[in-house]
Amino acid sequence: MKIALVILHADPARGGAERYTFDLAEALAAQGHQISLIASTFGPRPTGVTCVELGEQGLTRLSRYHHFLNSLDAHLTESKYDVVHAMLPIMRCDIYHPHAGIAAQAIITGHLKHAGFVKRFLSSIANRFNPRRNEFARVEKKLLTSANPPVVLCLSEYVKAMVRRNYPTLPENCLVTLFNAVDLAKYDLTAGPGAGDTIRQKYQIAKDAVVALMVAQDFGRKGLAQTITALGQIDQPNLVLLVVGKDNAEPFKRQAIRNGVDQRVKFAGGTTDVYSFYSAANFFVLPTRHDPCSLVVLEALAMGLPVISTKQNGACEIMTNSVHGFVLPSADDAEGLVRAMKELCDTTNRAQMREACLTLRSRLAWEEHLNTLLELYSKIER
Fold first, then answer.
1. The domain that contains 277 carries what CATH number?
2. In the chain, what is the straight-line distance between the N-terminal and C-terminal CA atoms, in Å?
3. Are 124 and 227 in the same domain?
4. H and E: helices and strands count for the chain
5. Which long-range contacts (CB under 8 A, 24 or more apart) does 21-28 make?
6. Are residues 293 and 151 both part of a single domain?
7. Residue 107, pLDDT score
8. Is the domain of 82 the same as that of 208?
């Protein structure tokens, strides 16, 4: 099949959607399909894939998005594909795969609609200063309310409920749930012996320390502030929080100082080698406010790391609370977060949960994900 994969920035270092798209492109190409990866900018180029770089033009993020949309539309007019699979709102595609969740949900009537007046007001102000977000929602609405809407590929039931809430007239046969997957060969406990020790040495973490790992690109939404606060309430000197991600760490460093845990919070910045950080950790923490299906949570589970996250994370649908870790009712459950982190400081608890996490590996296999996706492609193929 001749398949176009569309994403705004094709750089796996950016995390979730970008890393997924990069890996998907290589996996499909390895099976003999003709893959074009279409993006405005690229990081490393995937092997065996045609890279279509549309470039960035415009002074603002909104104008650059418009340039991307127009350039993409021109390219799709000139080039014929069996399937066009888009990871963000575009003007036409066969599969719409919203990794960040439905764009309409990000507007005030979305996931903040049940919030108090102050939060709704602040959100409305924020939206005025984020015109690209509003444009994402406008393009998405036009796409999903058209006479011939694409299949919406939902990363979880959490996302599917979001789609139904925002687009109640979308036909049921346009909704497909496909959970994220993990490359089990890459995230194998024996794939990088000694990698975890190297990370601990680099960040001056003792061998007997209990390491809680967070991997995120949006520290505010992913619950870093709540995690630092919880750390300050746990009288466990050997508990260390290791934070991986490109976001601005300075406000959180100051918070760690205020909470008296600055020596127990390690900021690693961005990485292209997240495997080594999983290897260095004892459990994973991500008390997120909203996450369609966190890939890092699934990778952590595949590595045998018990996970603390929330019901607002679609990835937790594969977990059983108190078996594979802890699923909090929300990011604001401060007591629950403290309690969960304390539980995972216990060696016996961690060992039991680790074994349970490893039994999930077969359900997370990339091969199963790819087979399901190819079946969907074959139904759509022009």
1. 3.40.50.2000
2. 10
3. no
4. 14, 15
5. 21/87, 22/46, 23/183, 23/366, 24/370, 24/373, 25/49, 27/366, 27/370, 28/3, 28/370
6. no
7. 63
8. no
What are the residues whose beta carbons fall under 8 Å from the beta carbon of 147, sequence distance 6 or more?
none
**Rounded CA separation 215/299 (Å):** 11
Cβ-count burial of 145 within 10 angstroms (0-12 exposed, 13-18 middle, 19+ buried)? exposed
Question: Is residue 109's pLDDT more than 50?
Answer: no
Distance, in Å, from the CA atom of 146 to the CA atom of 138, rounded to the nearest integer, reads: 12
Torsion angle, alpha carbons of 17, 18, 20, 21, to 10: 110
Is the residue at 190 inside a domain? no
Look up the pTM and report it: 0.83
Kindly state the greatest CA–CA separation across the chain. 63
Cα dihedral across residues 323, 324, 330, 332: positive or negative = positive
CA dist., res. 168 & res. 143, Å (int):
14
Note whether 240 and 266 are within 8 A (CB): yes
Q: How many angstroms separate the CA atoms of 125 and 52, rounded?
A: 36
pLDDT digits (tens, 9 = 90+) for 246-283: 899 999 999 999 999 999 999 999 988 899 999 999 99
Same domain, yes or no, for 199 and 165? no
DSSP sequence for 178-237: ----B-TTTS-TTSSTTHHHHHHHHTT--TTPEEEEEE-S-HHHHTHHHHHHHHHT---T
User: H or E element: which one contains 334?
Assistant: helix 334-343
d(CA 59, CA 70): 16
Residue 155, Cα to own-chain centre: how many angstroms? 10
Q: For 284-307, what is each residue's pLDDT tens digit?
A: 999 999 999 999 999 999 999 999
Residue 130 is part of which domain span?
Answer: 2-181+365-380
Element (H, E) at 293: none
Alpha-carbon distance 174 to 153, whole Å?
8
With tokens 């065996």, the residue in question is 48
Domain count, the chain: 2
Q: CB–CB of 145/152 below 8 Å? A: no
Q: Is the pLDDT of residue 123 over 80?
A: no
Q: Is the pLDDT of residue 41 over 70?
A: yes
Q: Which residue carries 């909470």 as its tokens?
A: 259
Q: Which residues contact 40 (CB under 8 A, 6 or more apart)?
A: 8, 9, 53, 54, 55, 56, 64, 67, 68, 71
- Residues 205, 280 contacting (CB under 8 angstroms): yes
